């Protein structure tokens, strides 16, 4: 039984999260997550597909296209889409992943760049959309122990 929400000091103890997101074109998004992001495909049906999303369970679910406008908040002088989701990667993995995405001609909302350079929480981040318009952020901290630092 879960008793309290204590910050994780040892990230290797993290439990995988589960997230289900809407997509209006299951086939196009299936190809994106499998072939562009290199996520291993798991179970599926005519209306959803499971992926191993960097050790977490991502499920894309069919939903008719929405005409909802994208909301953004200003962060570090850039327009960050809300909502968004993603993964915090190791620094070197982020660099390799970002280069791989550039080679696949990903259209970045926010190109990979270093935020808070030389400060607490120094990180590299990037944002892009999947084919259904879901915003993704991938980031890496120079010092992973500063993930929740104030």
TrEMBL record:
**Pfam families attached to this UniProt entry:** Glyoxalase (PF00903)
Q: Which InterPro entries match?
A: Glyas_Bleomycin-R_OHBP_Dase, Glyas_Fos-R_dOase_dom, VOC_core
Source organism superkingdom: Bacteria
Annotated VOC domain ranges read 15-141
Q: What is this protein called?
A: Glyoxalase
